[in-house]
Give the backbone structure.
Amino acid sequence: MSDDEQATTGIAELDTDPGTPPEHDAAHPARRKRNANRAEREREEELAFWRGIFDSTVGRREMWRLLNAGHPFETRFMVSPGGTPDSLATWHAKGEQDFALRMYHAWMRLCPEQIIRMHQEHDPRFGAAPRAPRPKGD
């Protein structure tokens, strides 16, 4: 390659595989339209999926159980068996809580009416009757 050719070759051209098509290509409007249609279809499918789950009593109950496994609405401070603070276990619990809250906020964004109904059915802070603890064998 001559010095003139090196000067006109961009960094992007050097770093890409020539056989790989670019992800966003303004030169192909049909591809852009297909990608936009696919993204819209996937958003609609996602909404239909979550609404289908939260429209059923069983779905709301199971999602409540799944959500509460991450303890999203409580702060947990972990201690060792000897009673001293255990910072690693506390940060682990914080990670679980953060994940559960991300999931909860995604649900609230997609179907807030059903999430409120889930709270009313299962959350004692929203007037739901406290449930008896499940036997350890279940």
